[in-house]
Design goal:
Blueprint lengths: L8 H15 L4 H7 L4 H8 L5 H7 L5 H23 L2 H11 L1 H16 L3 H6 L9 H8 L4 H7 L6 H14 L3 H19 L6 H25 L18 H8 L4 H9 L5 H9 L6 H22 L4 H26 L4 H4 L6
Helix pairs in contact: 1-18, 3-5, 3-18, 5-6, 5-18, 7-12, 11-12, 12-13, 13-17, 15-16, 17-18
Length: 351
Protein backbone atom coordinates (compact mmCIF):
# COMPACT_ATOMS: atom_id res chain seq x y z
CA UNK A 1 0.00 0.00 0.00
CA UNK A 2 1.34 3.42 -0.98
CA UNK A 3 0.31 6.75 0.52
CA UNK A 4 0.80 10.37 -0.49
CA UNK A 5 3.49 10.95 -3.15
CA UNK A 6 4.56 7.32 -3.11
CA UNK A 7 5.32 7.22 0.64
CA UNK A 8 4.36 3.82 2.07
CA UNK A 9 1.60 3.62 4.66
CA UNK A 10 3.91 2.09 7.33
CA UNK A 11 6.16 5.20 7.11
CA UNK A 12 3.16 7.51 7.54
CA UNK A 13 1.86 5.37 10.42
CA UNK A 14 5.09 5.31 12.43
CA UNK A 15 5.73 9.06 12.01
CA UNK A 16 2.16 9.77 13.15
CA UNK A 17 2.66 7.48 16.17
CA UNK A 18 5.81 9.41 17.13
CA UNK A 19 3.88 12.68 17.18
CA UNK A 20 1.17 11.09 19.38
CA UNK A 21 3.84 9.74 21.77
CA UNK A 22 5.60 13.12 21.87
CA UNK A 23 2.32 14.84 22.84
CA UNK A 24 2.17 12.61 25.97
CA UNK A 25 5.57 13.72 27.29
CA UNK A 26 5.56 15.65 30.58
CA UNK A 27 5.08 19.41 29.92
CA UNK A 28 7.27 22.18 31.35
CA UNK A 29 4.62 23.34 33.84
CA UNK A 30 4.48 19.85 35.39
CA UNK A 31 8.24 19.98 36.09
CA UNK A 32 7.71 23.40 37.70
CA UNK A 33 5.08 21.83 39.96
CA UNK A 34 7.30 18.89 40.86
CA UNK A 35 10.10 21.23 41.90
CA UNK A 36 7.91 22.16 44.87
CA UNK A 37 7.17 18.55 45.88
CA UNK A 38 8.92 15.96 48.02
CA UNK A 39 10.27 12.66 46.69
CA UNK A 40 7.17 10.64 47.67
CA UNK A 41 4.87 13.12 45.89
CA UNK A 42 7.09 13.04 42.78
CA UNK A 43 6.96 9.22 42.80
CA UNK A 44 3.14 9.38 42.98
CA UNK A 45 2.97 11.85 40.06
CA UNK A 46 5.32 9.70 37.95
CA UNK A 47 3.11 6.69 38.77
CA UNK A 48 0.16 8.51 37.17
CA UNK A 49 1.96 9.02 33.84
CA UNK A 50 3.31 6.71 31.11
CA UNK A 51 5.56 5.17 33.81
CA UNK A 52 2.61 3.71 35.78
CA UNK A 53 3.20 0.09 34.70
CA UNK A 54 6.86 0.13 35.78
CA UNK A 55 6.12 1.91 39.08
CA UNK A 56 3.37 -0.63 39.86
CA UNK A 57 5.46 -3.67 38.86
CA UNK A 58 8.58 -2.58 40.73
CA UNK A 59 6.89 -1.00 43.76
CA UNK A 60 7.03 -4.19 45.82
CA UNK A 61 10.78 -4.63 45.25
CA UNK A 62 12.12 -1.06 45.28
CA UNK A 63 11.36 2.08 47.29
CA UNK A 64 12.18 5.80 47.07
CA UNK A 65 14.96 6.87 44.72
CA UNK A 66 15.74 3.26 43.74
CA UNK A 67 12.16 2.73 42.55
CA UNK A 68 12.31 5.84 40.36
CA UNK A 69 15.76 5.00 38.95
CA UNK A 70 14.80 1.46 37.92
CA UNK A 71 11.32 2.38 36.66
CA UNK A 72 12.73 5.15 34.44
CA UNK A 73 15.43 2.90 32.96
CA UNK A 74 12.98 0.04 32.34
CA UNK A 75 10.45 2.35 30.70
CA UNK A 76 13.02 4.02 28.44
CA UNK A 77 14.46 0.68 27.29
CA UNK A 78 10.99 -0.80 26.62
CA UNK A 79 9.91 2.30 24.72
CA UNK A 80 13.01 2.29 22.53
CA UNK A 81 12.58 -1.42 21.85
CA UNK A 82 8.90 -0.94 20.88
CA UNK A 83 9.86 1.82 18.46
CA UNK A 84 12.42 -0.41 16.77
CA UNK A 85 9.71 -3.09 16.40
CA UNK A 86 7.18 -0.79 14.68
CA UNK A 87 9.62 1.19 12.53
CA UNK A 88 9.81 -0.03 8.89
CA UNK A 89 12.53 -0.25 6.25
CA UNK A 90 15.27 2.36 6.14
CA UNK A 91 13.75 4.18 9.11
CA UNK A 92 14.44 1.08 11.23
CA UNK A 93 18.07 0.97 10.03
CA UNK A 94 18.60 4.65 10.92
CA UNK A 95 16.85 4.24 14.29
CA UNK A 96 18.98 1.24 15.21
CA UNK A 97 22.15 3.08 14.11
CA UNK A 98 21.22 6.05 16.31
CA UNK A 99 20.44 3.82 19.31
CA UNK A 100 23.88 2.18 19.17
CA UNK A 101 25.08 5.16 21.22
CA UNK A 102 23.49 3.39 24.20
CA UNK A 103 26.08 0.62 23.81
CA UNK A 104 28.77 3.21 24.59
CA UNK A 105 26.88 4.59 27.59
CA UNK A 106 26.06 1.15 29.01
CA UNK A 107 29.59 -0.25 28.64
CA UNK A 108 31.14 2.88 30.19
CA UNK A 109 28.63 2.72 33.07
CA UNK A 110 29.67 -0.90 33.76
CA UNK A 111 33.40 -0.09 33.47
CA UNK A 112 33.12 2.92 35.80
CA UNK A 113 31.03 0.91 38.23
CA UNK A 114 33.55 -1.94 38.32
CA UNK A 115 36.48 0.46 38.74
CA UNK A 116 34.70 2.22 41.64
CA UNK A 117 33.59 -1.04 43.28
CA UNK A 118 29.87 -0.32 42.90
CA UNK A 119 27.38 -3.11 43.56
CA UNK A 120 26.13 -4.97 40.48
CA UNK A 121 22.50 -4.16 41.30
CA UNK A 122 23.23 -0.43 41.48
CA UNK A 123 24.99 -0.48 38.10
CA UNK A 124 22.15 -2.46 36.51
CA UNK A 125 19.54 0.06 37.72
CA UNK A 126 20.74 2.73 35.30
CA UNK A 127 21.52 0.62 32.23
CA UNK A 128 19.27 1.12 29.18
CA UNK A 129 19.41 -1.95 26.88
CA UNK A 130 18.42 -0.07 23.73
CA UNK A 131 21.44 -0.62 21.46
CA UNK A 132 22.95 -3.77 19.95
CA UNK A 133 23.79 -5.06 23.46
CA UNK A 134 20.53 -6.46 24.81
CA UNK A 135 19.65 -7.35 28.41
CA UNK A 136 21.29 -10.79 28.11
CA UNK A 137 24.55 -9.32 26.78
CA UNK A 138 24.62 -6.62 29.48
CA UNK A 139 23.91 -9.19 32.22
CA UNK A 140 26.88 -11.19 30.93
CA UNK A 141 29.11 -8.11 31.19
CA UNK A 142 27.77 -7.39 34.69
CA UNK A 143 28.85 -10.90 35.65
CA UNK A 144 32.52 -9.99 35.04
CA UNK A 145 34.40 -8.98 38.18
CA UNK A 146 36.74 -6.26 36.89
CA UNK A 147 37.09 -3.81 33.96
CA UNK A 148 39.69 -5.95 32.19
CA UNK A 149 37.32 -8.95 32.14
CA UNK A 150 34.42 -6.74 30.95
CA UNK A 151 36.50 -5.56 27.98
CA UNK A 152 37.67 -9.09 27.12
CA UNK A 153 34.03 -10.25 27.15
CA UNK A 154 33.38 -7.75 24.33
CA UNK A 155 35.95 -9.31 22.00
CA UNK A 156 34.38 -9.42 18.54
CA UNK A 157 32.17 -6.36 19.17
CA UNK A 158 33.00 -3.28 17.02
CA UNK A 159 33.84 -1.32 20.21
CA UNK A 160 36.47 -3.82 21.38
CA UNK A 161 39.56 -2.41 19.55
CA UNK A 162 38.94 1.09 21.01
CA UNK A 163 38.22 -0.29 24.49
CA UNK A 164 41.38 -2.43 24.49
CA UNK A 165 43.53 0.42 23.17
CA UNK A 166 42.22 3.08 25.56
CA UNK A 167 41.83 1.10 28.77
CA UNK A 168 45.49 1.35 29.96
CA UNK A 169 45.26 5.17 29.83
CA UNK A 170 41.85 5.14 31.56
CA UNK A 171 43.22 2.92 34.33
CA UNK A 172 46.30 5.08 34.84
CA UNK A 173 44.44 8.41 34.78
CA UNK A 174 41.34 7.20 36.61
CA UNK A 175 39.19 8.81 33.89
CA UNK A 176 37.22 7.27 31.04
CA UNK A 177 36.70 10.61 29.24
CA UNK A 178 39.30 9.96 26.50
CA UNK A 179 37.94 6.45 25.94
CA UNK A 180 34.41 7.87 25.70
CA UNK A 181 35.52 10.43 23.14
CA UNK A 182 37.28 7.79 21.02
CA UNK A 183 34.20 5.54 21.14
CA UNK A 184 32.00 8.41 19.96
CA UNK A 185 34.45 9.21 17.14
CA UNK A 186 34.10 5.63 15.95
CA UNK A 187 30.30 5.71 16.40
CA UNK A 188 29.86 8.90 14.35
CA UNK A 189 32.26 7.73 11.62
CA UNK A 190 30.23 4.51 11.25
CA UNK A 191 26.83 6.19 11.06
CA UNK A 192 28.06 8.90 8.68
CA UNK A 193 29.30 6.09 6.42
CA UNK A 194 25.87 4.44 6.70
CA UNK A 195 24.08 7.71 5.86
CA UNK A 196 26.37 8.41 2.88
CA UNK A 197 26.07 4.89 1.46
CA UNK A 198 23.28 5.89 -0.94
CA UNK A 199 20.46 4.53 1.21
CA UNK A 200 17.19 6.44 0.67
CA UNK A 201 16.66 9.12 3.31
CA UNK A 202 20.33 9.07 4.28
CA UNK A 203 20.75 12.80 3.61
CA UNK A 204 18.07 13.65 6.20
CA UNK A 205 19.67 11.32 8.74
CA UNK A 206 22.99 13.01 8.01
CA UNK A 207 21.48 16.46 8.76
CA UNK A 208 20.67 15.24 12.28
CA UNK A 209 24.06 13.58 12.78
CA UNK A 210 25.99 16.70 11.74
CA UNK A 211 23.92 18.84 14.13
CA UNK A 212 24.58 16.30 16.89
CA UNK A 213 28.34 16.44 16.23
CA UNK A 214 28.33 20.27 16.19
CA UNK A 215 26.58 20.37 19.58
CA UNK A 216 28.88 17.72 21.04
CA UNK A 217 32.02 19.59 19.87
CA UNK A 218 30.69 22.87 21.27
CA UNK A 219 29.94 21.25 24.63
CA UNK A 220 33.47 19.85 24.72
CA UNK A 221 34.96 23.27 23.97
CA UNK A 222 33.00 24.87 26.81
CA UNK A 223 34.12 22.10 29.18
CA UNK A 224 37.75 22.60 28.16
CA UNK A 225 37.42 26.34 28.81
CA UNK A 226 35.91 25.65 32.23
CA UNK A 227 38.85 23.34 33.02
CA UNK A 228 41.40 25.87 31.68
CA UNK A 229 42.76 23.11 29.40
CA UNK A 230 45.47 24.81 27.31
CA UNK A 231 47.10 21.85 25.53
CA UNK A 232 46.55 20.58 21.99
CA UNK A 233 42.89 19.56 21.95
CA UNK A 234 42.75 17.93 18.49
CA UNK A 235 42.24 14.46 19.96
CA UNK A 236 38.99 15.61 21.57
CA UNK A 237 37.54 16.86 18.28
CA UNK A 238 34.88 14.71 16.59
CA UNK A 239 35.05 14.89 12.77
CA UNK A 240 31.93 15.32 10.65
CA UNK A 241 30.56 18.68 11.82
CA UNK A 242 31.23 22.31 10.93
CA UNK A 243 34.53 22.52 12.83
CA UNK A 244 37.79 21.01 11.56
CA UNK A 245 40.31 19.61 14.04
CA UNK A 246 42.47 22.73 13.45
CA UNK A 247 39.49 25.04 14.12
CA UNK A 248 38.76 23.12 17.31
CA UNK A 249 42.35 23.28 18.55
CA UNK A 250 42.75 26.98 17.73
CA UNK A 251 39.47 27.85 19.46
CA UNK A 252 40.58 26.09 22.61
CA UNK A 253 43.68 28.31 22.78
CA UNK A 254 41.69 31.57 22.69
CA UNK A 255 41.56 32.99 26.22
CA UNK A 256 39.31 36.02 25.72
CA UNK A 257 35.60 35.08 25.84
CA UNK A 258 34.55 37.74 23.31
CA UNK A 259 37.18 36.69 20.79
CA UNK A 260 36.26 33.03 21.34
CA UNK A 261 32.56 33.73 20.62
CA UNK A 262 33.33 35.90 17.56
CA UNK A 263 35.61 33.23 16.09
CA UNK A 264 32.96 30.55 16.66
CA UNK A 265 30.31 32.73 14.99
CA UNK A 266 32.47 32.91 11.89
CA UNK A 267 32.49 29.11 11.64
CA UNK A 268 28.78 28.36 12.03
CA UNK A 269 25.87 29.18 9.74
CA UNK A 270 22.88 27.87 11.71
CA UNK A 271 20.89 30.84 13.05
CA UNK A 272 19.96 29.03 16.26
CA UNK A 273 23.60 28.32 17.12
CA UNK A 274 24.56 31.92 16.31
CA UNK A 275 21.79 33.19 18.63
CA UNK A 276 23.02 30.84 21.35
CA UNK A 277 26.57 32.17 21.00
CA UNK A 278 25.33 35.75 21.39
CA UNK A 279 23.42 34.77 24.53
CA UNK A 280 26.43 33.02 26.02
CA UNK A 281 28.82 35.91 25.29
CA UNK A 282 28.61 37.02 28.89
CA UNK A 283 30.44 34.56 31.15
CA UNK A 284 28.10 31.76 32.26
CA UNK A 285 28.60 28.41 33.94
CA UNK A 286 29.35 25.27 31.95
CA UNK A 287 25.99 23.85 33.11
CA UNK A 288 24.15 26.88 31.67
CA UNK A 289 25.95 26.52 28.35
CA UNK A 290 25.33 22.77 28.07
CA UNK A 291 21.64 22.98 28.99
CA UNK A 292 21.02 25.85 26.57
CA UNK A 293 22.88 23.99 23.79
CA UNK A 294 20.70 20.94 24.35
CA UNK A 295 17.58 23.12 24.08
CA UNK A 296 18.91 24.63 20.83
CA UNK A 297 19.50 21.14 19.44
CA UNK A 298 15.98 19.99 20.32
CA UNK A 299 14.49 23.17 18.80
CA UNK A 300 16.44 22.59 15.57
CA UNK A 301 15.33 18.95 15.47
CA UNK A 302 11.70 20.07 15.84
CA UNK A 303 12.14 22.37 12.82
CA UNK A 304 13.68 19.52 10.81
CA UNK A 305 10.74 17.31 11.78
CA UNK A 306 8.18 19.90 10.63
CA UNK A 307 9.99 20.34 7.31
CA UNK A 308 10.17 16.56 6.79
CA UNK A 309 7.11 15.10 8.57
CA UNK A 310 7.43 11.63 6.98
CA UNK A 311 11.10 10.88 7.54
CA UNK A 312 13.58 9.81 10.22
CA UNK A 313 13.28 13.24 11.88
CA UNK A 314 9.98 12.75 13.82
CA UNK A 315 11.40 9.49 15.20
CA UNK A 316 14.68 11.08 16.28
CA UNK A 317 12.89 14.06 17.87
CA UNK A 318 10.80 11.71 19.99
CA UNK A 319 13.76 9.50 20.94
CA UNK A 320 15.72 12.55 22.11
CA UNK A 321 12.81 14.19 23.95
CA UNK A 322 11.94 10.92 25.68
CA UNK A 323 15.58 10.57 26.75
CA UNK A 324 15.54 14.07 28.26
CA UNK A 325 12.23 13.41 30.02
CA UNK A 326 13.92 10.50 31.83
CA UNK A 327 16.99 12.69 32.41
CA UNK A 328 14.80 15.42 33.96
CA UNK A 329 12.84 13.06 36.21
CA UNK A 330 16.06 11.42 37.38
CA UNK A 331 17.62 14.84 38.11
CA UNK A 332 14.51 15.89 40.04
CA UNK A 333 14.45 12.70 42.10
CA UNK A 334 18.18 12.76 42.86
CA UNK A 335 18.04 16.45 43.72
CA UNK A 336 15.17 15.91 46.15
CA UNK A 337 16.90 12.86 47.67
CA UNK A 338 20.01 15.01 48.24
CA UNK A 339 17.84 17.83 49.65
CA UNK A 340 19.09 20.33 47.06
CA UNK A 341 17.10 23.58 46.82
CA UNK A 342 14.74 23.84 43.82
CA UNK A 343 16.74 26.72 42.30
CA UNK A 344 19.75 24.39 42.00
CA UNK A 345 17.78 21.42 40.65
CA UNK A 346 16.12 23.50 37.92
CA UNK A 347 19.52 24.27 36.38
CA UNK A 348 19.89 20.58 35.53
CA UNK A 349 16.52 20.30 33.76
CA UNK A 350 16.11 20.51 29.98
CA UNK A 351 12.66 22.10 29.56
Amino acid sequence: MVGVRGISAPYIYVCTRMRVRKAKLIPREEYQRMLNMGLSEITRIIGETEYKQEIDELGTTFKGIDLIEVALSWNLAKEYQKIQEITPGNLKAFTQAYLRRWDIQNVLTILRGRMQGAKTGKIKEILVPAGSLDTTALDRLLGEENPERVIEALKGHPMYPVLAREYPYAKESGSFSRMENELFKQFYAEIIADAESGIKGGNLFLDFIRLDIDVKNLKTLFRLRADAFDQDAREMHIPGGALTATDFSNLNLIKDQGEFIDTLKGLYRQKALLSFLDEIREEKTIRDAETRLTRVQLEQMEKMSKRNPISIHPILVYLEKKKYEVFNLRALARGKESKLPSEKIVKYLVM
